[in-house]
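Quick illustration, no need to memorize.
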Amino acid sequence: MINRYLLYGVIISIGIHFVFLLNIKFKENSEKILDIQLVHLPPKFNKENIIENKSFEKLKLHEPLVDKVVKTNPKEEIKEEYCKLCEPVKELAPPTKKIIFGETVNSILIEYKVFHDLGPNKGSIKKIKPFGSDGSLSNDSETKSISEVGNLKINYKINDNKYDINYIANAKGVTSIFYSKPLTQKSKGIINKKGLKPEYYLYSHGIKKKSEVIFDWQRKTLTIKRKEKIKTYDLIDEAQDQLSFMFQFMFLNPLDKMQIPITNAKVFKIYNYHYVDELDINTKLGNLSTLHVAKFNYQTPERIDLWLAKEYGYLPVKIAITQDDLSIIIQQIEILNINKVNE
């Protein structure tokens, strides 16, 4: 009898525990689920998306619409409107080639009169260097101390793609006593798209004063032979001698090239030219519009001034050389003869 009651008690206990366990709530996972929402993106912007429709009237666009007509059939025309930024890109017409003055010339003959302004220098006439061979250039101030001391002639010739320049200067008056021998210069080389490319330069003033320069473009060396001494420099692209330099402006805009490597048969260095002004000057050729450029620095009084005639391919029609004693050599054009290719 006891065992039967015990069995009933076990069964009742199991039922109570079962009900209890059903009422227990277990803790859920605390991690949040990532909620992803898909958003509809607008179509790409192109002219088809903005064809004129009623909704456009509600928008205030800053860019005005431009009418374009697309022909699909000779009898049918579909009118299409789209903003200026969406217009088809047109083919750009190549710029017309400007004829370069230097390429249309066979030969040029220039003659200058040479004047000397003593300025503050009132010393011996032996100190005068009538052709400015050691100096730089200056302005066109004229005083009572100016006197004519010589003349010079420059002959520039072209044969196919080669050029030849000859320079000869003679002293006159009292200065001819001290400078009886003419000063000569010579430059030879080729012509390419960048202008003159010298290969040989000679500077000679009598038998004893002779200097030569060899431009070796293949080895990139510049060699100066002077007074039985030889100096070698690294050759810089577009280098000039002081004679070819005068004609180089025919092939380029002077204001585009203001740093020019130049040799005077003594040294080889880069000369920095500066724009000064533009003015008309009166010459034997008439009143000429010129571009005035100058080479100078603020440490020494020496300077070189050039007045380049716009009408004549920027040839120098006036040159002034201010020397370290503040005296000035002035070279003023007298004659200019130009023979062009088809003449």
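Helices lie at 2-22, 175-178, 245-248.
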